Amino acid sequence: MLRALQIENYALIRSLEIAFDKGFTVITGETGAGKSILMGALSLILGSRAETDVLHDKTRKCIVEGVFDIEGLSLQGFFEENDLDYQPLTTLRREINEHGKSRAFINDTPVNLTTLRTLASSLIDIHSQHQNLLLLDSTFRLGILDQYADNASLRTNYHNALTHYLQVEQQRQELKTACAEAALRQEYLQFTLDELDKAQLQSDEQEQIEQSIRLLSHAEEIKTHLYAATQQLSESEQGNVLQELKAIQSECQPLHGLGPDIDDILRRLDEAIVELGDISYEISRKESEVEVNPAELERLNERIDLIYTLQHKYQVDSVSGLLELAEKLRQELTQQSDNEERLHELERESTQAEQAARNLATQLSKSRQKAIPAFQKELGQRLSQLGMPDSRIEIRLEQDTEMHPSGIDRISILFSANKGVEPADLSKVASGGEMSRIMLALKSIITDSTLLPTVIFDEIDTGISGETANKVAAVMHALSLRHQVIAITHLPQIAAKGDQHYRVFKENRGGQAVTDLQLLEGDSRVEALAGMLGGDHITDTARATARELLHIQ
Questions:
Q1: Spatial CA neighbour of 121 closest among 46, 12, 64, 215
Q2: At residue 162, what are phi and psi to the nearest 5 degrees?
Q3: Distance of CA 38 to the CA centre of its chain
Q4: Percent of the chain beyond pLDDT 90?
Q5: How far apart are alpha carbons 398 and 435 in whole angstroms?
Q6: So what's the pLDDT on residue 450?
């Protein structure tokens, strides 16, 4: 249960501390006094979105802190899973700084909003008059029915199964599209790969072929010049270079030993004769190796033309690039084959996942259908307590072929407030006051089944007055015997039933409007109720009626 609420610097609230007790607490106040501000502040520690415009003083941060008694709620597992300190009196806190940055805490440990929201959903339920519109929403209706039927575990299993199926189906669809696109490319890829493989390319052949072509293209010229060079060096019968050098060597040989410079010259002549002899031999050998071969030249030109054509065609500048392209194509074709196998696996997996989800959806539908008679009966009893003894509620389920997040059911609620009138669609026949009472009846049933410790009703009594207000008050009070109930109300009949009564008021302080809270007891409570009964001019009759409502002599 909610033990205390502290609010600092929120909207028109400068600083406010509220202590709550078990049982039934009512909060009243004039329109515009700030009752909705209290609910807005409370919603922050329940995980609602924070806005910077809620700061009363833009230079200070806003703090909202709630203390909850959670002993006996079996929440230790939640605290262990989220690495939080478990305390029987647990504090939920939100802080919003002047820049709009929000932080959340559980027992002074920082947490994200999801964690805060998850814990808060186990502690408190807020119902406002705007939620009456939820009665028209199929998802909300099914959620209420599931809560009554205790379908939480089954619904979670179905949701997980549906999520798994949708994920697998999405993967299947994406891979199917990819395979279809790849199939359009397959013929081109295979043709390209066959063309490259047929060429039997070698990584280093282009340079070798180009060099060979250069030699073969100039073979005759090379042989002519090398032959002439050989003749001049050593083979000409008259005046070849080696003969001339040997003649020079013979002329200088008698001078050997006449000085180091002359001996050096003789040594160098010996070396030159040897070197030129080697050069002559190499030139002669090379000349004999050079072959004039038009057929080989033609073959090499055809080969290099093929390489150049492939490089131009596939926008690469080397044989290595062509080989890399071939390997890439080979991998892509292999991947396509793997994808097709994976697609078959996903098709089987998707079928199995769909069937598993559909089986759970069917179980969920059967559980709902089984719970409807008892739920309708109990709902009728609650509506009778709320002043609608002749009302009839019929809940009908129809199954869709498609699965949706809530299952395969479409739910309709038919309602009749009077005897002899056939039930019709709730949205078309229920008045605002009737919608409020139907929602209150639903909430009272679900609150009992979910064992939520605290329930807050925020002005759900719109469109209710007179004896109906007394009946609504009685239902709220009966609910407070099993849960902590906090009601923001404008009806004196409900306010009088409260074990605690707070009045929200607004006053000017230092030239600014400020919202504050007052605990009403004794005469102050009588005056407040009399004001709710009689307006601005409180009469003795209004005071007497207020005392009667409060059972004060």
A1: 46
A2: -65, -45
A3: 32
A4: 29
A5: 23
A6: 65
- Contacts with 387 (C-beta within 8 Å, 6 or more apart), sequence order: 437, 467, 468, 471, 472
Residue owning tokens 């009403």: 520
Task: Identify whether the C-beta of residue 355 lies closer than 8 Å to the C-beta of residue 169.
Answer: no
Start-to-end CA span in the chain (Å): 32
Instruction: Give DSSP secondary structure letters for 63-107.
Output: EEEEEEE-TTS--HHHHHHTT----SEEEEEEEE-TT--EEEEET
Q: Report d(CA 315, CA 515) in Å as an integer.
A: 77
Residue with tokens 């409180």: 538
Name the 3-class secondary structure at 408: strand
**C-alpha pair distances (Å), 4 with each of 20, 153, 174, 483:** 6, 33, 53, 16
Q: What are phi and psi of 524, to 5 degrees?
A: -65, -35
pLDDT tens for 173-190 read 988 888 777 776 767 777
**459-498 pLDDT tens trace:** 777 677 778 888 888 888 988 888 899 999 888 999 999 9
Give 419-484 as a 3 state SS string. Answer: CCCCCEEHHHHCCHHHHHHHHHHHHHHHHHHHCCCEEEEECCCCCCCHHHHHHHHHHHHHHHCCCE
Strands, DSSP E only, in 183-284?
A: none
**What is the spatial distance between Cα 389 and Cα 384, in angstroms, rounded to a whole number?**
4
CA dist 38 → 16, 61, 102, 502 (Å) = 10, 17, 18, 12
> Model pTM greater than 0.70?
no
Q: What does the block give as tokens for 133?
A: 């519109």
**Whole-Å CA distances, 486 to 155, 330, 347:** 30, 71, 53
Half-sphere exposure of 76 (CA within 13 A, CB side): 4
CA–CA dist 486, 495 (Å, integer): 10
| 24 contacts: CB under 8 Å, gap ≥ 6 | 476, 477, 480, 485, 487, 497, 498, 499, 500
117 residue type, one letter: R
Long-range contact pairs involving 504-510 (C-beta distance under 8 Å, separation at least 24): 504/27, 504/28, 504/29, 504/33, 504/34, 504/35, 504/38, 505/29, 505/30, 505/33, 505/34, 506/12, 506/30, 506/32, 506/33, 506/34, 509/14
Rounded CA separation 199/75 (Å): 73
Quote the CA–CA distance of 25 and 487 in Å, as a whole number: 6
Phi-psi region of 11 (alpha: psi -120 to 50; beta: other; left: phi over 0): left
Of 517, 515, 516, residue with least CA distance to 12: 515
β-bridge mates for residue 96, sequence order: 62, 102
